[in-house]
């Protein structure tokens, strides 16, 4: 079949939004007396902790009025509590997080289903002495007299007390534990026991600018008293982030590790201490790289303006596969820190974006790749492993890099304002997604909405060995197929250690995981295993749901296969991957050779690879869109809506395919609902077929819509149903993909400033009963992708129209400006059927466009 262009839909009709599903049932709570007795010890501990802290501050910093962060956990949620806090003098709302999977007990149960796990909230509130005393007084009054009247403004605390799970003081343990900073300090002291140590001190973000300045001044004073320094600071109001890069003498870091009795770590201004410079690439083994006998594809006449950007390591720009294809911008002079043979990760990422897997010899991009180095070799490591430098806060470095692209820096003009897609293939091994949005994920969300740019981020790699619940001998005796199943089941059981790595939980970005796939050939040596012979999620690929159980990762693409050592011995079977191998299998990338050769290649693997391939797909979609909009003389619309349309179209051809069946073989006991949940945790919407997204066929028509909506509005699009589908019993498939960028609201649990969703309306809405994905989960992010298919002749019948409605509501905040969205709809029939639908759909749409033209000209 010949390839046919995409179709632009007419201007949509305005409509009222369709309803969205409400939440579950209410929670049964204990009596006031039971609550008071159950929580009495917690309130006693809180009161004692605050009294001790108050006395400590009076002795060490007389004259300072203390403020404390109180952690409040509830079953369910208390509506409007956020606003109630804002109206009470002495209290400041710091944020809230969701508690998931709370087990029912004798006191708290879901009223509809007593065995159903519940959700709750963790709320963080800053309080001065007067307000905390009032809170404690209210609690005592509540317990002694359940009918008491609460003081004006405090009434919501009755609802909090009724559903309270726990209450405590944010202490030193919260600032230090589960952040990786203790292990980081220990490693730094072991490596260089006499050298000062740098780390991040993230402060509680205060709404008042003067209070922020006071908080920072107090921390700077404490650091100076310890003989250290604050190297830099970063404050970004849009993501509620305020942090300091601190350097302390080794002796004081050692004191903290010994007993934590150091004023700095007790400071109530500090939320968390974090490691610095930890997002690193992994070195490889020493093998002789190949010299690929394939001529580097010549670039066609390139545009001058880049459409895609890479924030990564410095690439070897004069390698034969990269020469003339990059535009490197290095304002921090990171190049001075690099030897040519250390330019590994940036070289690989740049080539995969520009060329794809070199084994498949793809055509280069039509525009130069803008590259901003953000990684440096750590000269303390063997070979100089590339990492985010310890001279910068990661959030600050990436924020300034993107701002420079679109706004400029100092007196300079913007350096890459035409970029539509940014590749960010780094992951913080200390920040596994646990339900709370990390600072870097919040930054990515804010930057994408602020500058109207799509980020592609990698899900993250987990290269640690995988331990199976069986002995090595038993594993070796299994069939090859059963070994595959046991390995995947073990990875699923180890999900808590293989979650998304920051910033992969970003809601606005496309998060890309890796499949165990590539185009290389390999002969396995004795004692080596390839765990999957079918395409499956790579064992190293991070997985799990996104924020508020949204679908993440979004998409999966080949990241490279990993060979494993066969388990030996008599103990438990442990699968160790040859992660750092530069030999096949894997994706082929250029290699900066020690000998100075500019045509060597090696193999690599990881979610960074998959993300680079996804970014390349985005560039291909961008080219197709730009050509389409130029042909319709709508270049202005392209500039406005290209990023959200790229996001929609890259995902539009995605599906679970055979991977769904392979995963189901590993979990035969799972019902359909459970299986859908398992599959989406590992592969999101599946593997995209970008070729299906950028052109049509006679039996497949893809139409595009775009626009802007504020809360309480909706747009309706009419898709003509060809006469050929009337009364014919044949397979037909409808795919609807909606994408947008939500403004983040970091202190609100809903987080998304706006919620958009697509619905099928009118006489064909019954077609929506045959869904591939969980329709509730689809609506929780900013990428709404649904596939409907079937053979029922009563739906999608000829000579009718299918109405697709794009709905918008305010979620975390009120939307002052219209939220840009991109919509892709595809109707197709099975290949081999003598039914052509494209031309009729196109002609009926063009008739409507011609009818609208006089109205638009008025």
Q: Could you walk me through the main structural features you see in this protein, from its secondary elements to its overall organization?
A:
The strands form 10 sheets. A 7-stranded parallel beta sheet has the order 15-16-14-19-21-24-26. A 5-stranded mixed beta sheet has the order 1-31-37-33-35. A 4-stranded antiparallel beta sheet has the order 2-32-36-34. Helix content is 30%, strand content 25%. It is α+β, with helices and mostly antiparallel strands. It has 4 domains: 7-22 and 698-857, no CATH class; 31-170, no CATH class; 174-274, Alpha-Beta Plaits (2-Layer Sandwich), CATH 3.30.70; 296-462 and 472-479 and 499-652, Peptidase S8/S53 domain (Rossmann fold). Helix 6 packs across helix 8, helix 10 (345-354) packs parallel to helix 15 and helix 15 packs across helix 16.
CATH architecture of the largest domain: 3-Layer(aba) Sandwich
Order of the strands making up the biggest sheet: 15-16-14-19-21-24-26
Q: Structural class from helices and strands?
A: alpha+beta
Mean pLDDT: 92
Query: What spatial form do the alpha-carbon principal axes imply?
Result: globular
The CATH class of the largest domain is: Alpha Beta
Distance between the termini: 41 Å
InterPro entries: Peptidase_S8/S53_dom, Peptidase_S8/S53_dom_sf, Y4bN_pept_dom
GO biological process, one term: proteolysis
Domain Peptidase S8/S53: 308-686
GO molecular function, one term: serine-type endopeptidase activity
């Amino acid at each position: 079949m010949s390839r046919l262009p995409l179709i632009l839909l007419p201007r949509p009709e305005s409509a009222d939004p369709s309803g969205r599903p409400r939440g579950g049932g209410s929670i049964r709570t204990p009596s006031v007396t039971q609550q008071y007795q159950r929580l009495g010890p917690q309130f006693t501990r809180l009161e004692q902790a605050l009294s001790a802290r108050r006395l400590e501050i009076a002795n060490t910093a007389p004259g300072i009025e203390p403020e404390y962060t109180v952690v409040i956990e509830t079953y369910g949620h208390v509506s409007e509590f956020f606003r109630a806090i804002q109206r009470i003098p002495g209290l400041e709302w710091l944020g809230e997080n969701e508690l998931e999977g709370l087990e029912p007990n004798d006191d708290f149960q879901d009223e509809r289903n007593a065995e159903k796990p519940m959700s709750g909230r963790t709320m963080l509130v800053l309080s001065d002495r007067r307000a905390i005393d009032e809170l404690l007084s209210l609690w005592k009054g509540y317990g002694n007299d359940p009918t008491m009247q609460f003081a004006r403004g405090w009434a919501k605390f009755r609802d909090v007390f009724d559903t309270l799970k726990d209450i405590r003081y944010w202490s030193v343990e919260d600032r230090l534990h589960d952040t990786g900073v203790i292990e980081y300090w220990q490693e730094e002291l072991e490596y260089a026991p006499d050298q000062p140590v740098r780390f991040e001190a993230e402060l509680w973000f205060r709404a008042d600018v003067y209070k922020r300045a006071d908080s920072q001044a107090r921390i700077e004073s404490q650091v100076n008293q310890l003989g250290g320094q604050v190297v830099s600071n970063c404050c970004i109001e849009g993501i509620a982030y305020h942090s300091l890069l601190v350097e302390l003498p080794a002796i004081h870091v050692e004191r903290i590790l010994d007993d934590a009795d150091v004023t700095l770590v007790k400071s109530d201004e500090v939320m968390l201490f974090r490691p610095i410079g930890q997002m690193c690439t992994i070195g490889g083994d020493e093998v002789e790289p190949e010299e690929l006998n394939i001529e580097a594809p010549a670039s066609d006449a390139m545009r001058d303006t880049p459409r895609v950007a890479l924030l990564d390591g410095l690439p070897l720009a004069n390698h034969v596969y990269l020469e003339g294809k990059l535009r490197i911008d290095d304002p921090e002079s990171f190049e001075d820190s690099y030897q040519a043979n250390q330019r590994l990760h940036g070289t690989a990422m740049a080539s995969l974006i520009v060329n794809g897997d070199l084994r498949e010899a793809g055509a280069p991009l039509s525009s130069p790749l803008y590259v901003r180095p953000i990684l440096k070799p750590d000269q303390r490591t063997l070979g100089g492993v590339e990492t985010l430098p310890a001279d910068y806060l990661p959030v600050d470095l990436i924020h300034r890099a993107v701002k420079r692209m679109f706004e400029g820096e100092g007196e300079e003009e913007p350096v890459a304002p035409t970029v539509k897609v940014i590749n960010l293939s780094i992951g913080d091994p200390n920040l596994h997604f646990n339900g709370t949005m990390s600072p870097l994920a919040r930054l990515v969300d804010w930057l994408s909405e602020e500058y109207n740019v799509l980020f592609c981020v990698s899900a993250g790699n987990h290269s640690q060995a995988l331990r199976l619940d069986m002995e090595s001998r038993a594993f070796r005796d299994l069939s090859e197929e059963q070994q595959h199943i046991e390995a995947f089941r073990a990875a699923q059981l180890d999900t808590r250690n293989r979650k998304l790595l920051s910033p992969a939980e970003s809601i606005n970005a496309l998060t890309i995981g890796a499949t165990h796939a590539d185009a290389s050939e390999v002969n396995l040596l004795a004692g080596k295993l390839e765990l999957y012979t079918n395409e499956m999620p790579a064992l190293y690929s991070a997985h799990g749901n996104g924020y508020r159980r949204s679908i993440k990762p979004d998409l999966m693409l080949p990241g490279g296969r990993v060979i494993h050592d066969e388990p030996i011995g008599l103990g438990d079977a442990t699968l160790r991957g040859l992660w750092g191998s530069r030999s096949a299998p894997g994706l082929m990338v250029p290699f900066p050779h020690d000998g100075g050769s500019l045509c060597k290649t090696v193999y690599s693997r990881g979610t960074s690879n998959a993300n680079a391939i996804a970014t390349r797909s985005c560039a291909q979609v961008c080219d197709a869109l730009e050509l389409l909009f130029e042909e319709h003389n709508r270049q202005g619309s392209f500039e406005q809506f290209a990023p959200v349309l790229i996001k929609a179209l890259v995902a539009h051809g995605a599906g679970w395919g055979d991977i769904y069946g392979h995963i189901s073989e590993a979990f035969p006991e799972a019902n359909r609902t459970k299986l859908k949940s398992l599959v989406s945790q590992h592969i999101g919407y599946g593997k995209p077929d970008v070729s299906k997204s950028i052109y049509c066929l006679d039996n497949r028509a893809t139409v595009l819509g775009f626009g802007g909506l504020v809360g309480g509005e909706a747009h309706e699009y009419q898709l003509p149903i060809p006469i050929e589908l009337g009364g014919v019993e044949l397979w037909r498939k409808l795919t609807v993909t909606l994408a947008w960028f939500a403004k983040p609201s970091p202190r609100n649990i809903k987080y998304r400033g706006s919620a958009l969703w697509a619905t099928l309306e009118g006489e064909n809405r019954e077609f929506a009963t045959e869904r591939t994905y969980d329709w509730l989960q689809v609506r929780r992010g900013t990428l709404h992708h649904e596939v409907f298919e079937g053979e029922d002749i009563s739906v999608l019948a000829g000579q009718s129209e299918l109405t697709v409605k794009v709905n918008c509501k305010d979620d975390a905040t009120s939307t002052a400006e219209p939220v840009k969205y991109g919509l892709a709809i595809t109707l197709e029939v099975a290949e081999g059927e003598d039914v052509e639908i494209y031309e009729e759909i196109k002609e009926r749409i063009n008739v409507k466009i011609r009818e609208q033209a006089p109205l638009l000209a008025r």
